[in-house]
TrEMBL record:
<feature type="transmembrane region" description="Helical">
    <location>
        <begin position="245"/>
        <end position="262"/>
    </location>
</feature>
<feature type="transmembrane region" description="Helical">
    <location>
        <begin position="217"/>
        <end position="238"/>
    </location>
</feature>
<dbReference type="InterPro" id="IPR002656">
    <property type="entry name" value="Acyl_transf_3_dom"/>
</dbReference>
<protein>
    <recommendedName>
        <fullName>Acyltransferase 3 domain-containing protein</fullName>
    </recommendedName>
</protein>
<dbReference type="GO" id="GO:0016747">
    <property type="term" value="F:acyltransferase activity, transferring groups other than amino-acyl groups"/>
</dbReference>
<feature type="transmembrane region" description="Helical">
    <location>
        <begin position="337"/>
        <end position="358"/>
    </location>
</feature>
<keyword id="KW-1133">Transmembrane helix</keyword>
<feature type="transmembrane region" description="Helical">
    <location>
        <begin position="175"/>
        <end position="197"/>
    </location>
</feature>
<keyword id="KW-0472">Membrane</keyword>
<feature type="transmembrane region" description="Helical">
    <location>
        <begin position="313"/>
        <end position="331"/>
    </location>
</feature>
<feature type="transmembrane region" description="Helical">
    <location>
        <begin position="83"/>
        <end position="104"/>
    </location>
</feature>
<feature type="transmembrane region" description="Helical">
    <location>
        <begin position="141"/>
        <end position="163"/>
    </location>
</feature>
<keyword id="KW-0812">Transmembrane</keyword>
<feature type="transmembrane region" description="Helical">
    <location>
        <begin position="274"/>
        <end position="293"/>
    </location>
</feature>
<dbReference type="InterPro" id="IPR050623">
    <property type="entry name" value="Glucan_succinyl_AcylTrfase"/>
</dbReference>
<dbReference type="Pfam" id="PF01757">
    <property type="entry name" value="Acyl_transf_3"/>
</dbReference>
<feature type="domain" description="Acyltransferase 3">
    <location>
        <begin position="5"/>
        <end position="356"/>
    </location>
</feature>
Length: 388
């Protein structure tokens, strides 16, 4: 497989949107670890990416996993390589990076009386409840844990399913996923998950009881894995990207209109059902449109791509802790929403770059922040994605 630069750019953009989304979480009424005075309307632009950002990341991760699997060839070797690459930064993140988030939440919302160091040394590693929280926690790093689990399941499937059956499944995927089915089948599955299999279910990000998330994201991961060896399907996305983007925009307009009319999940029947279906349509149509556009217009290299590709994982590890800590400090300023937002975005970007550049330069820290131990001789950065 040749490297797909378009999906690299898509992955970079998706994580950039994720950082902005988590900044927005500070201001909307939705639950988050740190809150500042905001406005309900902030949720409206956030819904432009809410239905598809994670599904897209799992599709891209599945696609890249196919390339990594072909490079490693043997399932156990693939699983070992991915385990080392994902579990080391996950453990480091849970132990060192994430703890500031529950400390801020407990201090600002539940009256926790102690400072951070007391919390980290005496309360964080209790493996039980402290107030409403179960500690330790992985918070935003749930994505890394889920990706590791999906990778192990994939490796096990490849190991136990005969080669002929896998080849038949790949051919079946290529035959089915063409034409209107590229949109209709995934949207139908998302509607089935939300209205038939798990009606009213919510994602928990707790792994063992998160069936709504698994039913949504594991198929997306497998879809990306199969897409990597289905050029006709990828070409179908390219041909239909305008159509897909148009459908996604129309669905988002409907979602936004309902949210504006009934903010805060207060819409009456049948508007609640229409809202959920529109979100499902927006979610997959946006993924399809973005993949098609990326393959048709972004599949080319640039001198910045290797560094940005490598920086994505460290940015992801650190960004939410920076957001939560800066938001905690901003509580006492009384600044207007727009100024808080500017400071949060600027501080988060600066903190992410500092974390990446410092960690990149110190050899023993590289594996802890998701980088390979040694940089590429050609670029001095790792051109292959870690969280892929």
């Amino acid at each position: 497989m040749q490297r797909h630069y378009g999906l690299d750019w898509l992955r970079i953009g998706a994580f950039a949107i994720l950082i902005l989304y988590h900044v927005g979480m500070v201001f909307v009424p939705w639950d988050f670890h740190a809150k500042l005075p905001g406005a309900w309307w902030v949720a409206v632009p956030m819904m432009a990416s809410n239905p598809w950002r994670l599904a897209l990341l799992f599709v891209v991760s599945g696609y890249a996993s196919r390339a990594l699997f072909l490079r490693n060839k043997v399932p156990w070797r693939f699983a070992r390589q991915r385990s080392l690459r994902l579990l080391v930064p996950l453990a480091f993140g849970v132990a060192v990076i994430v703890p500031v988030q529950p400390w801020v939440e407990l201090t600002s919302r539940y009256g926790y009386p102690h400072g951070f160091w007391h919390f980290w040394l005496h309360d964080y590693f209790r493996f039980g409840r402290l107030g409403p929280l179960v500690l330790p926690t992985w918070n935003h790093l749930w994505f890394v844990g889920y990706l590791w689990v999906y990778t192990l399941v994939l490796a096990a499937l490849v190991a136990i399913v005969p080669a002929r059956a896998r080849q038949a499944a790949q051919r079946g995927f290529a035959w089915i996923m063409r034409g209107p089915a590229l949109l209709l089948l995934p949207v139908g599955w998302m509607v089935l998950v939300n209205f038939v299999l798990f009606p009213g279910g919510r994602e928990t990000h707790a792994l063992v009881d998160d069936w709504v998330a698994h039913a949504s994201y594991f198929p997306a991961f497998l879809f990306g894995f199969a897409l990597a060896c289905a050029p006709a399907t990828l070409a179908g996305f390219v041909r239909r990207w305008r159509e897909s983007a148009g459908i996604a925009i129309l669905a988002y307009i409907l979602v936004a209109a309902i949210e504006i009319r009934w903010p805060g999940n207060t819409m009456p029947a049948p508007w609640g059902t229409i809202f959920s279906v529109a979100r499902a349509v927006e979610g997959w149509a946006a993924v399809a449109g973005l993949i098609g556009y990326a393959d048709g217009h972004w599949n080319r290299d640039h001198r910045w791509r290797p560094m940005l590709t490598e920086a994505v994982f460290p940015f992801y590890i650190i960004h939410q802790s920076v957001i939560v800590l800066v938001a905690y400090w901003l509580r006492a300023t009384g600044w207007p929403v727009w100024l808080d937002a500017i400071v949060l975005v600027a501080a988060t970007v600066a903190g992410c770059w500092a974390f990446y550049l410092i960690g990149r330069a110190i050899g023993p820290l590289r594996p802890l922040i998701g980088l390979r131990r040694h940089a590429s001789r050609r670029t001095r950065v790792d051109p292959r994605p870690a969280i892929a």
